[in-house]
Amino acid sequence: MQNQYSPSQPCRAEDVPQWDSETDVVVVGFGAAGSCAAIEALAAGAQVEIFEVAAAAGGSAALSGGEVYVGGGGGTSVQRAAGFEDATEDLYKYLMMAGGPGADEARTRLYAEQAEPHFRWLQEQGVPFKGPTCRASGSNR
Ligand SMILES: Cc1cc2nc3c(=O)[nH]c(=O)nc-3n(C[C@H](O)[C@H](O)[C@H](O)COP(=O)(O)OP(=O)(O)OC[C@H]3O[C@@H](n4cnc5c(N)ncnc54)[C@H](O)[C@@H]3O)c2cc1C
């Protein structure tokens, strides 16, 4: 008989024939979002299990160009080192324009407000950033 369970087919909890383990937090998918969620859950004292369907962690994040669209809050350390200041409102406006007519205002606002602290959080986890690749016009640094 063909297995009716697959990673892409949701299954009701009451239909699960057997539970193999118990934990506080289950993270499904070990990509960018999953790894960040797992780190924070662990830091909050939870027991965490990560399930990854692929042979290795990383997902699209591991294939990506690694450009992180953050700023605001006066600017990230990378922006400031390149001679740029940035404002949360400017990041918000930029993201709303980039998102087009369907852009979600509330989510975009939240993203813009949290972007700079999230960038620092990534740095604190040891994510390496190359630093400034271009300098603001008129900057002599
Ligand atoms: C070539 C490329 C370049 C990109 N460049 C950029 C860039 O420069 N800047 C940028 O901001 N974004 C970029 N992106 C987009 C960015 O990579 C994604 O938006 C981001 O990685 C999504 O993160 P995620 O955690 O949601 O998904 P992922 O990082 O894809 O993680 C999802 C994980 O879940 C696993 N999974 C899926 N289903 C299951 C299941 N049922 N059970 C268990 N595991 C499962 C997957 O195998 C995967 O490992 C790029 C994407 C690509 C493909």
Keywords, separated by commas or semicolons:
two-stranded parallel sheet; 141 residues; elongated; 5 helices; binds flavin-adenine dinucleotide
Q: How would you sum up this structure, described in words?
A:
It is a single chain. The protein is mainly alpha-helical and 141 residues long. Among the domains are: 24-59, no CATH class; 68-127, no CATH class. Helix content is 38%, strand content 6%. The protein has helices at residues 32-43, 59-63, 77-81, 88-99, 105-124; strands spanning 25-28, 48-51. The protein has a two-stranded parallel ribbon. The protein is elongated and about 60 Å long. 10% of the residues are buried. The mean pLDDT is 89. Bound molecules: flavin-adenine dinucleotide (FAD). Flavin-adenine dinucleotide is lined by residues 7-8, 28-34, 51-54, 59-61, 63-67, 69.
